[in-house]
Amino acid sequence: MFGGLPPALSNCTNLIAIDLKRNDFSGELTIVNFTTLINLETLDLLSNNFAGTIPESIYSCSKLLALRLSGNNLHGQLSPRMTNLKSLIFLSLSYNNFKNITNALHVLKECKNLTLLFLRGGFIGEVMPEDETIDGFQNLQILSISECSLSGTIPPWLSNLKNLGMLFLYMNRLSGPVPAWIKSLKSLFYLDISYNNLAGEIPTALMNMPMLPTILLDTRVFGLPLYKDPSHQIWITSAFPRVLNLAYNNFTGAIPQDIGQMKSLTILNFSSNSLSGDIPPQICNLTNLQVLDLSNNLLTGAIPSALSNLHFLSAINVSNNDLEGPIPTGSQFSTFTNSSFGGNPKLCGIIVGRRCGLPEALLVPTLSTEQKDRRIAFAIAFGAFFGVGVLYDQMALSRYFG
């Protein structure tokens, strides 16, 4: 559908939900007087072409639980009247042209029931506010301030978000270390701070995040679904993987040996940093690990052989390091390809075509029928697990649309 919204929509006073997502509507939302829609609980205008500002009349919809305006051409600053939406639990303003993120956060902190907040792809080039008077958001479970090119540091006011389970700060220009208070986020199980300018050693505080050693997650239903793609909806927190993504930063030093404490971790991505030293054998304690990416670092030593015991491991990338010795064999390792290990001239094994103990002798890999069948089965399973709506970011780091 296309065109502008009909002003007569204001006459539908019994409406509880308006769902017009993924259409080609345009024009300004101010053409509709939302003041009359006193029963409205859900307004979903995701992925249209609406322009202008958020109409003030929307703030009269006191029963509104979920508001999704992402993927439009809206602009301006958030009105203080947003705080009239006392019942709001789901808000997505992503991919618009809003300005003044400091003002936005000060306004939104007064929406005491907010559970999910998405501010992706807006406020471009501003500074991440560090103002400790941003002290609300006590019920927030998911926060995304990503793809904004924000400068600054990881702000201290985040340390107050005790119910936060998922934090997305990727694709900004944040610098400095990961703060030690990160371990105080008692519910955090998904952290994506990739594609920034963060530096220093990976702190042991990350390894001590209380939520990562457990598999108990919040089962409350969201106000609106999140999408991997139009056909794949997610309604509850427990449907998400447990993720630690530090890729594309400037981290140095060794991978902490305490990493083995993160028992329920599903996806681990430390790629494209300057990490050095051995891959700690404790990483083999991550028995739920499905994706491991340590590529493009300065790692040395052997690949721990016990990685072959991680039966859920479906993707690995340790390419472009300085690793040496035999590549583990058996289990899932028979399904991995040369690209997972390339750029490590001291590695040997059938996968890289280099016989162990004979560094000059090339070994041309030949696969048995059983191995071929396993690779085909793996490809099908891998595609089913990751291919449906996942934005494959180096090693299948899922990014979910609010």
Q: How do the strands and helices of this protein lay out in sequence?
A:
Elements: E1 2-3, E2 17-19, E3 24-28, E4 42-44, E5 49-52, E6 66-68, E7 73-76, E8 90-92, E9 97-98, H1 101-108, E10 116-118, E11 142-144, E12 151-152, E13 166-168, E14 173-176, E15 190-192, E16 197-201, H2 204-207, E17 221-229, E18 232-236, E19 243-245, E20 250-253, E21 267-269, E22 274-277, E23 291-293, E24 298-301, E25 315-317, E26 322-326, E27 346-348, H3 369-386
Parallel strand pairs: 1-3, 2-4, 3-5, 4-6, 5-7, 6-8, 7-9, 8-10, 10-11, 11-13, 12-14, 13-15, 14-16, 15-19, 16-20, 19-21, 20-22, 21-23, 22-24, 23-25, 24-26, 26-27
Antiparallel strand pairs: 17-18
What does this molecule look like?
This protein is mainly beta and 402 residues long. Helices cover 7% and strands 24% of the residues. It is built from three helices and 27 strands. The strands form four sheets. Strands 2-4-6-8-10-11-13-15-19-21-23-25 form a twelve-stranded parallel β-sheet, with no helix packed on it. Strands 12-14-16-20-22-24-26-27 form an eight-stranded parallel β-sheet, with no helix packed on it. A hairpin with a 2-residue loop joins β17 (221-229) and β18 (232-236). The longest helix is centred in the last third of the chain and has 18 residues, at 369-386. It is elongated and about 80 Å long. It starts with a strand and ends in a 16-residue tail after the last helix. Residues 359-398 have low confidence and may be disordered.
